[in-house]
Design goal:
By secondary structure, the chain is mostly helical. It contains 18 helices and no strands. Helix 8 packs antiparallel against helix 9. The longest helix has 26 residues. It is flat and about 90 Å long. 25% of the residues are buried.
Length: 323
């Protein structure tokens, strides 16, 4: 008679088999494999289904196996975890050995009572503002249940509270990869990205959180999005101002402008080229009353003490801009 553990293992294997079949089907549909290999894919799917006694045509069984994820996205989480785990690999444990020794994230990791205990202790440490202790406790929970989005998200919060925002981003990204519907992780990802100066990435994270929350999102999520969006708009405005022509040439102690900087100004260079190739334009420029006023200012030593004209004002004059 099979034990309960044996039955659970068999169920997990069936789910994994269905996840593999789903992956093969998607690979054939999205062009990952060539059309010449489609027949081989179908044969492989049929063999897996027969061997594990599963039906790939049963949508309920497939949803039970992978939920809203795909085997590819789940494996992406595993790859990230493989790079973050604090446990050193065993000597020679590379490739398939490393994969077989790690928990298979083909479905949400079952609740582990010991891991839950560490999480509860971590929550208590957070309330006491003992963030290093909270990080240590959440890490112990994650070691026992690596794909649990709650543990990862909680540790992200503890990292942010400890001003370790890079680590917070890494944990929050893992959490949303494991379960995009766990919206607290999106909020923590948004915060960590914002503090690190990634306002656009922060805005995107908060938007995802709003989308998954539904009904327009919570007030906290909307506030985070609004703050990040304002920062993005501010940066775009600053960038646009930075792209504007720097028309006021720096002046040296002797009163001369920075000629190299001036000649690198596209508008000034275009004007100079036009004047050199058009004598009539040069004559018109010399007769321009605005330019005569500036020349008189230079000669009279008025203005800024050095006697140099305001290059910005000169370049902004419509009659000169047309030269």
């Amino acid at each position: 008679m099979e034990s309960l553990a044996d039955n659970l293992q068999a169920t997990s294997q069936k789910r994994l088999a269905l996840a593999v079949i789903d992956f093969l089907s998607n690979s054939a549909k999205d062009g990952t494999v060539s059309s010449e290999d489609t027949e081989s894919i179908e044969i492989a799917k049929s063999c897996i289904a027969d061997s594990f006694h599963v039906s790939p045509d049963d949508p309920a069984a497939l949803k039970d196996a992978i939920g809203d994820q795909s085997l590819l996205s789940i494996y992406g989480v595993y790859e990230k975890l493989k790079g973050k785990t604090s446990t050193a690999p065993m000597p020679g444990a590379a490739g398939s050995k490393a994969s077989s020794s790690a928990p298979k994230p083909s479905a949400p990791t079952p609740t582990n009572p010991e891991a839950e205990s560490f999480k509860s202790q971590g929550n208590a440490a957070m309330q006491q503002k003992d963030y290093p202790k909270a990080i240590d406790l959440y890490t112990k929970a994650i070691d026992l249940s690596p794909v649990n989005p709650v543990y990862l998200s909680n540790r992200a919060a503890a990292y942010s509270a400890s001003h370790k925002h890079t680590e917070a981003v890494a944990d929050a990204e893992l959490a949303v990869s494991a379960d995009p519907k766990y919206t607290k992780a999106w909020s923590r990802l948004g915060l960590a990205r914002f503090v690190l100066g990634d306002a656009k990435g922060s805005m995107e994270a908060y938007q995802k959180g709003i989308d998954y929350e539904g009904n327009g999102g919570s007030e906290a999520m909307k506030k985070g999005f609004k703050t990040a969006k304002a920062k993005v708009e501010e940066e775009e405005k600053e960038g646009a101002n930075g792209d504007c022509l720097e028309l006021t040439a720096p002046v040296s102690g002797g009163g001369m402008p920075d000629i190299s900087g001036l000649m690198n100004n596209p508008m000034f260079a275009s004007m100079a080229q036009n004047l050199m190739s058009n004598p009539e334009a040069l004559q018109g420029l010399m007769n321009n009353p605005r330019l005569r006023e500036m020349a008189q200012g230079m000669g009279g030593g008025g203005g800024g003490g050095g006697g140099m004209p305001d290059i910005s004002a000169m370049m902004s004059d419509p009659s000169l801009r047309e030269m």
